[in-house]
Amino acid sequence: MAASSNRIMLGPLVAAIDQGTSSTRFLVTALQSSNVCLKHFNDRCNHDVLCEHPNFLNEFLQKVYERLSEKLTQLNIDISNIKAIGVTNQRETTLVWDKETGEPLYNAIVWLDLRTQSTVERLINKTPGKNKNHLKHKTGLPISTYFSAVKLRWLMDNVEKVHEAVLSHRAMFGTVDSWLIWCLTGGKKGGVHCTDVTNASRTMLFNIHTMDWDPELCKYFDIPMEILPKVRSSSEIYGLMKSGPLTGVPISGCLGDQSAALVGQMCFKDGQAKNTYGTGCFLLKNVGTKPVMSDHGLLTTVAYKLGRDKPACYALEGSVAIAGAVVRWLKDNLGIIQTSTELGRQAADRCGQWTIYPQRLECVRTLRRDCAV
Question: What is the pTM of this model?
Answer without folding.
Answer: 0.84
